[in-house]
């Protein structure tokens, strides 16, 4: 599973949080795979394959209707980017043009969707990680040129399409061996992608409301776009102790300029870190923490959030079943306008099941994706469907 090598919270955290450790993992994997043709820009001819073939991981999902949804990830540690489509009956692979890792997807319509990630590019006997952006036009996924910083690592982890000429992609850039990475924000204006300056460090997710309002979240980084520039925001806390733990926000969902949710995890104790799910809410004036239920006293975290209305939102992630966390279970929470509550969710594997992303379009239609442990065979895709009464694996 994906783990950020730079995570500072200790060994328990290293086992917990999906989408963390991409830099070092992607770089090391890239060095090995480049020699075997990792960069060959060859369309995947065998589009109809067993999508659960291990090791496979899904990282994000985005839907436009009950019969049109996309999920993205990768297979074989990045040797094959994975794009899956839901047609209302089943999920099936769709060909894409590059071998890479995809971490974010945002669909506007059946003929307009974006996916982002990173791939490895050789540069004078070295390997550089470059941004990757794919566009779906209704029939094929096509790579769209995207800018990179001067650093050797550039990656995109989240994307949000507001309109056909207003799309945001976020991630980070930096140099191997240096703990400080920089926020990377790209914008699509209908004809090309360009870099927009942004403060702070790594970013994991973005959600846009309009051309004048978008939110991006990451490791100790909470940004707002006001139509002109990105600026850092602060979280209102109830006590001094809550200002001490470092918060890592992994998901954000904006309904309006006055209603935004963000989720992730934070360290709950000094010394040894026991990550706890973190939920914060923007009411148009300030960000404030919102309490959420914990399945047990062990580590837990949230990786994705999707809001349907002021009285209906979903958040997903995973939690440890014991203190040393040899196994994790899916964690699904729902907001009813007053409080967050736990909703039962499937755990099909005999080892671990984790959810990395969620998207809801109505009270009766939602999807959650992630990956399940497969023992010696590696990991496999995990796709869950909400039908209004319960979660199931289609």
Give a short summary of the structure:
By secondary structure, the protein is mainly beta.
Average pLDDT over all residues:
84
What low-confidence regions span 5 or more consecutive residues with pLDDT below 50?
A: 1-19, 23-51, 239-245
**Helix/strand order:** HHEEEEEEEEEEEEEEEEEEEEEEEEEEEE
What is the helix tally? Answer: 2
Structure description:
- The protein has helices at residues 11-16, 22-34; strands spanning 56-65, 68-75, 80-86, 91-93, 101-109, 112-123, 126-136, 141-143, 153-163, 166-174, 182-188, 193-195, 203-210, 213-218, 222-225, 230-232, 247-256, 259-267, 275-282, 287-289, 300-309, 312-320, 328-335, 340-342, 353-362, 365-373, 379-386, 391-392.
- The chain is mainly beta and 394 residues long.
- It has a 4-stranded antiparallel beta sheet, with no helix packed on it.
- The radius of gyration is 19 Å and the shape is globular.
- The model is unreliable at 1-19, 23-51 and 239-245 (pLDDT under 50).
List the helices and strands and how they pair.
Elements: H1 11-16, H2 22-34, E1 56-65, E2 68-75, E3 80-86, E4 91-93, E5 101-109, E6 112-123, E7 126-136, E8 141-143, E9 153-163, E10 166-174, E11 182-188, E12 193-195, E13 203-210, E14 213-218, E15 222-225, E16 230-232, E17 247-256, E18 259-267, E19 275-282, E20 287-289, E21 300-309, E22 312-320, E23 328-335, E24 340-342, E25 353-362, E26 365-373, E27 379-386, E28 391-392
Antiparallel strand pairs: 1-2, 2-3, 3-4, 5-6, 6-7, 7-8, 9-10, 10-11, 11-12, 13-14, 14-15, 15-16, 17-18, 18-19, 19-20, 21-22, 22-23, 23-24, 25-26, 26-27, 27-28
């Amino acid at each position: 599973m994906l783990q950020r090598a730079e995570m500072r919270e200790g060994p328990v955290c290293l086992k917990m949080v999906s989408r963390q450790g991409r830099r070092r993992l992607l770089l090391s994997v890239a060095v090995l795979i480049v020699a075997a043709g990792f960069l060959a820009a060859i369309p995947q001819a065998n589009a109809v394959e067993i999508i659960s073939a291990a090791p496979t991981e899904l990282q994000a999902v985005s839907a436009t209707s009950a019969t049109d949804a996309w999920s993205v990830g990768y297979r074989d540690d990045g040797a094959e980017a994975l794009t899956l489509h839901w047609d209302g009956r089943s999920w099936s692979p769709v060909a894409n043009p590059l071998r890479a890792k995809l971490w974010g997807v945002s669909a506007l319509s059946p003929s307009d969707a974006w996916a982002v990630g990173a791939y490895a590019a050789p540069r004078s006997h070295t390997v550089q990680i470059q941004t990757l952006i794919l566009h779906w036009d209704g029939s094929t996924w096509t790579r769209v040129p995207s800018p990179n910083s001067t650093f050797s690592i550039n990656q995109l982890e989240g994307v949000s399409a507001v309109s056909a000429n207003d799309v945001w992609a976020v991630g980070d850039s930096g140099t191997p061996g240096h703990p400080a990475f920089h926020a990377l924000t790209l914008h699509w204006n209908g004809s090309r992608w360009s870099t927009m300056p942004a403060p702070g460090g790594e970013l994991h997710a973005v959600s846009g409301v309009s051309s004048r309002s978008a939110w991006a979240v990451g490791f100790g980084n909470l940004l707002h776009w006001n139509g002109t520039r990105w600026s850092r925001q602060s979280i209102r806390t109830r006590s001094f102790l809550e200002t001490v733990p470092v918060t890592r926000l992994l998901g954000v969902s904006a309904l309006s300029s006055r209603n935004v949710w963000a989720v992730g995890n934070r360290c709950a104790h000094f010394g040894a870190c026991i990550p706890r799910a973190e939920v914060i809410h923007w009411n148009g004036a300030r960000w404030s923490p919102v309490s959420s239920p914990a399945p047990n006293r062990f580590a837990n975290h949230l990786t994705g959030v999707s809001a349907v209305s002021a009285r209906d939102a979903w958040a997903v992630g995973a939690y440890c079943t014991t203190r040393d966390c040899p196994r994790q279970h899916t964690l699904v929470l729902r907001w009813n306008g007053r409080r967050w509550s736990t909703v039962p969710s499937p755990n099909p594997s005999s080892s671990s099941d984790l959810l990395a992303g969620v998207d809801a379009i109505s009270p009766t239609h939602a999807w959650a994706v992630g990956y399940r442990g497969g023992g010696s065979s590696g990991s496999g895709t995990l796709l869950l469907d909400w039908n209004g009464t319960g979660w199931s694996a289609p």
